[in-house]
Amino acid sequence: MKEYVFSGEITQGKGTQPFERTVEANSMKHAKDKLYSTLCSEHSVKRSKITVEEENEA
Questions:
Q1: What is the Cα 35 distance to its own chain's centre?
Q2: Which residues form the Large ribosomal subunit protein eL20 domain (predicted)?
């Protein structure tokens, strides 16, 4: 499996919180889906509140 690195912001209430995550997956699409799933669960936000600014293969 390949590693993908994502960075961006999560909007919570009136503020935003930056994030940077590394995800292991077979494709960029699958990695992005895992990223959204993990962040939504951890921060109790919907996918629309997550902005991915950079996505790179590690």
A1: 4
A2: 1-54
CB 19 within 8 A of CB 5: no
Mean pLDDT of all residues in 21-47: 96
Which domains are delineated in the chain? Answer: 2-57 (3.10.20.10)
Q: Is the Cβ–Cβ distance between 55 and 6 less than 8 Å? A: yes
Q: What is the pTM of this model?
A: 0.91
